[in-house]
Input
Amino acid sequence: MKKLFNILGLLLIVILSLFFYFKWNELKYILRFGNSKSQIIEKNINIGKISLGDSTIVHFKIVNVGTNDLKVEQTMSNCQCAVLKLKDTIVKEKDTLYVDVLYKPVEKGKFDQEVALLLNTAPPFHFLHITGEVIE
Output
């Protein structure tokens, strides 16, 4: 019986170690001090129809609802057709961060363009979506 508990304990340690190893990038944001909280006013914006060759700017608003400064640590896009513009990377308590995304389509058809923000929040990754249809 004691041997069974030792094996189960060792197995639990191995599982927890693997979890921490593979999830450390997310856990380090959850466990650190000074995190803030954010509220994204609208995560998905449908711009309707846009002509190939045109461009549009899509505005997202993120409110700092925490007591610490909200910090944008990194921005990412899954294509060069979306360029992010930020006025500030640090937002004070109860203030608003405006994220402007310049979208210029590269092919016809329906699209769902994703833009990611890495913030000092838990969870740290926030995804914004621009959807619509590109016509000629």
